[in-house]
Design brief:
By secondary structure, the protein is of the alpha/beta class. It has eight helices and six strands. Strands 1, 2, 3, 4, 5 and 6 form a six-stranded mixed sheet that branches. Helix 1 crosses helix 4, helix 5 runs antiparallel to helix 6 and helix 7 packs antiparallel against helix 8. The chain is elongated. It starts with a strand and ends with a helix. 33% of the residues are buried.
Length: 217
């Protein structure tokens, strides 16, 4: 485990729908940026990844999406959490989750009595996460990142990534994987392009090769 490990911070769920979820997420992001152990993926990098996933940049970066991005790009872990009211105060809960397995490594909770104490509660939550994360992240392996290509289907991306590996050993063996990928996502341009490359390199079915090239374009 190296210092500065990049992890994902998903948007905190706000059960009251007051906007406090966004406030807590951004305040926690600022606090975690001071950590020598953790390096939170920047919002601009998240936006680029959301585009590759075929998602709107306006869509909340939920824990479910963070898990998918962890699988796609090989991030070790992500943080998810929520804000809820308890009596006259607030309860902040968070979890450090292993990206590949989805296992909760550490859970955190901080209760504050009023909105005035919310920032101090966020500071306490951040401190707890920073103290425990190095220990937790050190016990898990980094996932193998998938190819970076634009598709809304995680399974299609898995097949495409596997096809890229197979292609180097036996180009024709990649073809069924690529075909399955475009069946799952007919708009998967890079998979269509790879089909065209396989057919062109092997000299098979020029008509199909041109059709695949056209769909890729």
């Amino acid at each position: 485990f190296e210092e500065g490990e990049v992890i994902l911070l998903s948007s905190f769920e706000d059960r009251m729908e007051t906007g406090l979820g966004n406030v807590v997420t951004e305040a926690l992001r600022v606090d975690l940026q001071e950590s020598s152990v953790l390096n939170v993926l920047s919002p601009s990098a998240v936006a680029d990844a959301m585009a590759r996933m075929g998602r709107s940049v306006d869509e909340p970066f939920s824990g479910r999406i963070a898990r998918e991005l962890s699988l796609r790009d090989g991030y070790k872990a992500f943080i998810e959490g929520e804000v809820a009211t308890v009596g006259g105060g607030y309860l902040l809960t968070a979890a450090l989750v292993a990206g590949e397995s989805g296992e909760v490594l550490k859970a955190f909770r901080v209760r504050v009595d009023s909105e005035d104490e919310l920032l101090s509660g966020i500071d306490k939550l951040s401190q707890d996460i920073r103290e425990k994360s190095g220990e937790s992240l050190g016990t898990i392996k980094r996932g193998t990142p998938l190819a970076q290509a634009t598709t809304a289907s995680l399974e299609a991306l898995r097949l495409y990534s596997e096809a890229n590996i197979v292609f180097d050993r036996a180009a024709l063996s990649a073809l069924p994987l690529l075909q399955e990928a475009v069946e799952l996502d007919p708009d998967f341009a890079m998979a269509w392009r790879k089909i065209a490359v396989v057919l062109n390199n092997t000299g098979l079915d020029p008509v199909r090769m041109r059709e695949a090239s056209t769909k890729a374009f």
